[in-house]
Amino acid sequence: MENKYGHIEKAPLLKRIILPVTTALVGWLVLHFVSEHMGWIESRMIYKFAMNLVHVVLCLFLAFNGFFVYRAMCMRGAGLAERIAGSYITPLAYAIKEIIRVSEFFTVGESFYYCLCAYPVLGMFVGQAGLLALSEMLCRGYFKNRNLYKGNTVTALPVAVFIASMTALYFLFFYDAGGMVFFAYSELYKLIFK
């Protein structure tokens, strides 16, 4: 595959990969810590409001993590594999946290199945793919405007990934309120673990 990016200055590893990935990971950890330690709020109404607010922010942070991390890494000259891997670090950390959390109640195999096939985690990974494709096109447009990208901004592969991702999210969450996918999830679970 030909590199169509021009002379984009490749930042050192610390700025190119570690800083954007660590910032996203620390942001998630802080939000998770805050959401787990709000029991000190005595007013029930304030507690419910604060918990809902923190969880909405946490959900949006996890959902759109790759969109921002990918572009931050691209602007610093990271390669495609680096951008994709870096964008999935925080969702992967979340998945590992979920595997550990549910392994208190289920076997290790069931915990992996739950985390890799359940709606929130699977939806997050699938959604990230679409956002990464969108981010790639935005980065191409940004660099093309600065004469640093020699190629089309919109190409078939990122568009196909974006469409496939959004279609999968539709079936996971909205089509039949996710019932069809949940039925398949349940039947596969019974087939494997019962």
Provide the structure class. mainly alpha
Question: What general outline do the C-alpha atoms trace?
Answer: globular
Q: How large is the count of helical segments? A: 8
**Gap between N and C termini, in Å?**
46 Å
Q: Based on the structure, what is the oligomeric state of the protein chains?
A: single chain
Which stretches are low in confidence, meaning pLDDT under 50 for 5 or more residues running? none
- Calculate the mean pLDDT score and round it: 89
Strand content: under 5%
Notes on the protein architecture:
There is one protein chain. The chain has 194 residues and is an all-alpha fold. It has one domain (13-193). It has helices at 13-36, 44-75, 80-87, 89-102, 108-117, 119-145, 156-174, 179-193. Helix 4 crosses helix 5 (108-117) and helix 6 runs antiparallel to helix 7. The longest helix has 32 residues, at 44-75. The model has no long low-confidence stretch (mean pLDDT 89).
